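Thread: adenosine-5'-diphosphate complex, take 2
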Amino acid sequence: MTATIEAISLSKRYGGRQALDELTFTAEPGDVIGLLGPNGAGKTTTIRLLTTILEPSGGSFTVAGIPGDQPHRIRQRIGVLPESAGYPERQTAAEYLRYMARLFGQDRRSARAAADRLLGDVGLGDRAGGRIASYSRGMRQRLGIARALVNEPSVVFLDEPTLGLDPAGQREILDLIGRLAADRGATVVLSTHLLAEVEQVCGRVLVLDRGTLRAAGSIDEVRAGSSLSDAFLRLTHD
Ligand SMILES: Nc1ncnc2c1ncn2[C@@H]1O[C@H](COP(=O)(O)OP(=O)(O)O)[C@@H](O)[C@H]1O
Ligand SMILES: [Mg+2]
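Output below.
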């Protein structure tokens, strides 16, 4: 199977600070990969590099088979939920998604259909006509996931998608992410500092600490006989 993500010694420095140090991994269609690590581990940096928002200081990568030096092509094929997503508060969710679909080149009719379908998929069908200003944090995260799917991406990056949600809201988002990978055959990269999340949806985990990959593999491989939280504490610094 062809890799949907291939990162080779991917590195990023901010001034004197090595935020990411020679990260190497691959992902395939249908993979849900958990990017796990404490604050400052380099999770957001990894996502920003692979989504072409930042340029690497070293190493190389491909996403959806496209080399990292062709960001415009990569952007056509990916969906992103950034760490802190802003929304046009006065628009309705349906208006916002139709607009996004139009930006990706869909005509009016198919943009309308895509917005309706995606809002249904993320469980916002009955609130599609409500202004985003009235949305809770969980609803905004779902809208952000719908937005990330508008171009039918083959790779979806979600940066801390459950941040700030209560346990029920977290579970809903995780169920949604699991379905997304299964139904669409998309690769999902999900960053989190919460172990329960990776245990629930991720087939594979990358454990980062201070920019360095400390472990990679299935949850059982990373756990190596102990609990995932013991392994996490052993592999990271806080
Ligand atoms: N724009 C930036 N300028 C300087 N340092 C940064 C910048 N963004 C992140 N960093 C640093 O890079 C490291 C990794 O950050 P980040 O990728 O945001 O980690 P995480 O998402 O895992 O919390 C941290 O030490 C952070 O302070
Ligand atoms: Mg982050």
